[in-house]
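Justification of computing resources. Each target in the renewal requires a structure prediction run like the one illustrated here; the chain below, 789 residues long, is used simply to show the kind of job we budget for.
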Amino acid sequence: MRVLNIGFGIAVSMSFLSGACTVDPRLAFDDVVQQSGEALRGDNGLSLNGLSLNGLSLNGRTGDVLGEGAGNLFEVPLDGLYINQIGRSGVGFDGVGTNQVGVSGAGTSGVSMTGIGLTGAEPGTIGAAGEGDDSFDRFSVNGFYLHGFGENGLTVAGAPLREVGLDGLTINGSFGVRRNASDGAGPVDFEPAREDALEVALYHLVGCALGEGESAKITASDGTVRIYQGLRGLAPEWRRSSLSREGEGRVLACLASSPVASQGVALNAEQELNLSLLLHYLVECALAPEQMVTIYAGDGTTAQYAGAMGLAAEWQTEALSEAGMGKVSACVAARTNGLGQTVSLSLRHPELETSPVEAELFSVHEGAFWGRLFGPDQHIEACVVSGGGLSGRVCAESEDCGFLIAGDCAEVCADYDPVNGYSRCGADGATEVINTFLNLGTRVTFGDGNLCVVDDDGGLHCWGANQCGQLADGTTIFRDRPVFVEELGHEVAEAAMGALHACARQRDGELYCWGHNGYGQLGQGGGLQWQRPVRVLGDVATFAIGDTHSCAVKTDGSAWCWGNNESGQAGVQGKGPVETPSPVSGLDAGVARLAASTTAKHTCAVMGDGGVSCWGDNAHGQLGDGSRRHRNRPTPISTDDRGQPFGEVTDMCAAGAYSCARKADGSLWCWGFDVNARPHLVADDVAPESLACGEWHACFVKHDGDVWCFGRNEHGQLGRDTEGRSDFVPAPVEGVDKVSFVNAGRTHTCATRGDGRLFCWGTDPGHEQSLFPVELSSTPIEIEIDLDQ
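Resulting structure tokens:
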């Protein structure tokens, strides 16, 4: 027998609403709504597979590109770098060109593009191959000799490249651009890696030869047509006809005066964009918010990159230090995502300040990262915190990102700090370690009428009222015993129930819903109900569901809602049902938590900075904006009832007529109840993640583990023998202690102790039959539920 042990790995939800539902035939698990659109790039939108960042490879081909003597990115300051400068009066802009120092593939620790360089001749060599005078016979771009002589010389239908126009060229084939084979066997087609290098060479040739506004259309071997833009206009005749001797001299001078040509390496447009993204992450990790660097792009424009974390501030004006290499490497690795989706992160390191708000909002410890992306020994190691994390991130627990997976952090790291996480990790005891914390829902919610429990293995079990299929068992039959939801397997992270529908988030961020869909609260468009789970949305970090609407926070911090919008609770213009997930106006980033409940027709969002915005029904002042007006757009709560700024919120709950919030200092504030239309101080010393809003009563846990409640008490839900009397002054509940968290429904309250034991009081919430095996009263009583019945 497996007895219900409700601990931090357990999620419980209850719901009640009498009514009938019409059976809809579409009940299959595969009847899903797929969300389109590619993943956004944000806090960790890098794809670092095999140490590759969006097409740029960190130390992926040591020495392949520039050979000996090339500089390294970490050996020069970031400020003043430039990219792909072509012949600007023979010199670059102020600073050292990135193509000289490894960002495009230099030396032992630069960033290399696979396939660029190493084309059979030493890149950047002048006078090493070919015949003739100081012409293209003796000058290479990415290792190619453009007269067609010598190894890797370029030819078109047997003629040197200089004798045909650039516009309309094709690569490979009898009449395309080919290269001379090293064995003297004649022209051969380009294999993919060398074709990439050729494209970069053509990019620079066209840039030097043609003027602004001119272009050359060149077809790749796979049929892709690429447009190469002119810039300098030094040999415009080469667009349609052969290159003149005068034009040849000017183009040669253009290439020779460019650092990219003298080093034999250049970037194409796509690679330059990838490099820009990489620099964005490097600068943010290294420099402080007040620091800025200027980078010069290949088209002559400049871009400024702002710092954010300040882990290696010296890199702005001098070489990167040894310690800085470790911290920046760990930072970039920690912000990497194997699946390319955007995830909001809290990065922890002793040098990174973590506010109390951030520490509590981002409370799920995912893992730790350390290693080197610079220097001869390139590697990144990662460990995962047992039970933590979002499997969609992958990098802390899977080798898909090219990292060395060390295992459980508790086993491979020697030191641990409650705020910053692990240190002295791996065989070498690395101290430059970045820990990651995620903002994922661990909330437990109760309503009335039915009950769902997520067990310690991630399995979902439901029983009770089922008139709309809200138990996900394929029927509308009342269940007096737990029924395992087979379709979701053992992958459920949290569950919640609305009036007649329910939802569950899986560990990989997939959100499924089932039950009544009369208002579109399942996100499936038309149809009255689904008796089995259907997929609604992916990349979900946490969610909340109200009476007849549902909302979710995606891993990128954006808020989405769907369902009933009569009072504006879906955050969308108009009052009609919102039948598919829709973005909440103004909340496209930065959302950390959502608050709603079985009885709520409004929604609140806690932002990453501790601010609060609410929208929907406001008849009782439950939006906290000082009015009684319904809102269909998030409205910030700017001040409390004393006129003081309101913020630094870490937890919230919401019910039909009121809302409550806990601040980082442990104070509890509530509004609504037809009493206060702005936040009013209720209590102090409240523990994190311990609020519960019933229909007309609320409870919380203090730091000493005691439960306190206030509000109406018709059913004994306050845990006091004063049924029928309301008491809006919080008082402790006798008979239960050492509580971890608490939940409140319409008629009852339940508390979970630190040892997992469950205690409840009030009136049994069952609609047709009792849900609990014992009778409830105003005195807390222990509840045992057998999940294996």
